Amino acid sequence: MASVLNTVPSIKLSNIGTCRVRNNRPALTPFSVSFTRRRLTIRATETDTNEVKSQAPDKAPASNGSNFNQLLGIKGAAQETNKWKIRLQLTKPVTWPPLVWGVVCGAAASGNFHWNFEDVAKSIVCMLMSGPFLTGYTQTINDWYDREIDAINEPYRPIPSGAISENEVITQIWVLLLGGLALAGLLDVWAGHDFPTVFYLAVGGSLLSYIYSAPPLKLKQNGWIGNFALGASYISLPWWAGQALFGTLTPDIIVLTLLYSIAGLGIAIVNDFKSVEGDRALGLQSLPVAFGMETAKWICVGAIDITQISVAGYLLGAGKPYYALALLALIIPQVFFQFKYFLKDPVKYDVKYQASAQPFLILGLLVTALATSH
Fold first, then answer.
1. Predominant location of this chain (predicted)?
2. Which of 55, 81, 148, 193 could pair with 188 in a Cys bridge, judged by C-beta atoms 3.0 to 4.6 Å apart?
3. Rounded to the nearest 10 degrees, what angle do helices 166-191 and 197-213 cross at?
4. What is the residue range of 114's domain?
């Protein structure tokens, strides 16, 4: 597997170690790729700088970006030379909370979590496994295999800018992966499992992350399959890990969380709008590329809203009307922010939309978890 992670997409190199890759699409920015012994650099060519600025004024140099964005690993980050800050940026801490929250929901759904030192300690270790380690692994490996796309969409990210070397990225991928799997094994021993459920969930999630980003499968090339896989990774897997740690996974929980993963598909589409240019250049069929921006916007909000309404209907049918009403009440502000931000401009307002609407979605997850535990 080490050889797999060290695989580099096919780019022909000249004898002097530098080549230039041109895309025939006139709307796209040419970029150069240079390899040295330890460092990979992909950057827009200097001759086209003015053209890039006129086509994509939001792609400001990282030196003009935000230090806060850099630490969270989101667009608009400042350029950083401190390697530990760069490593943190690659793990995208802004993506950790949904996984951490998924563990909370799973623990709540088990009905066996108690506010004592041992259970709290177990849950924290499970959160570390799901968030910083395995989500960090997922984000780093995704950036590694997206380095050509990022050279077009976000050329100042650490890998395409050359701020971190190839060997350092590969090392980070392995440390995070093996660290996450080790914590999963520890949790199974701690919980006294006869079958290492948490470990196998971690292995499955790690494999899913790999085939999502890496060739030859590269699930993200297909907007439907890739986004559903991403939604399942962010909602179902951490929930299952939290519930397996404190209780038993049941078929109804598996079905319910996979249904919620359709809402996760909608959330994943939100992030595709800012990458349309690069996705189109490299042939990735994200939904905004396949259906166009307008149609993809409605697919996105439909997946999020219809899923939650369906779950509310399930809770109502299960004889839990108060939980169903609470979930419906949490959908209303999401719809409001969809019209206020996302449907107006999913690129310009993506951060505002996610910051305002998604807290209500994750609260709805907790409502559902509590409903299933009673």
1. plastid
2. 193
3. 160
4. 2-372
Is-contact 144 95, C-beta < 8 A? no
Instruction: Indicate the angle between helix axes 83-91 and 166-191, nearest 10 degrees.
Output: 60
Dump pLDDT digits (tens) for 322-333: 999 999 999 999
Helix axes 237-246, 197-213, angle to 10 degrees: 170
120: closest CA among 250, 247, 249, 246? 246
Residue 283: CB atoms within 10 Å: 8
Query: Tens digits of per-residue pLDDT, 44-59?
Result: 333 333 333 333 444 5
* Pairing outcome for strands 31-35 and 18-21: antiparallel
Number of structural domains found in the chain: 1
Residue 290: how many other CB atoms lie within 10 Å: 17
For residue 284, give Cα distances in angstroms to 26, 56, 90, 272: 18, 20, 22, 10
Peptide bond into 216 cis (omega under 30): yes
Query: Counting every residue, how long is the chain?
Result: 374
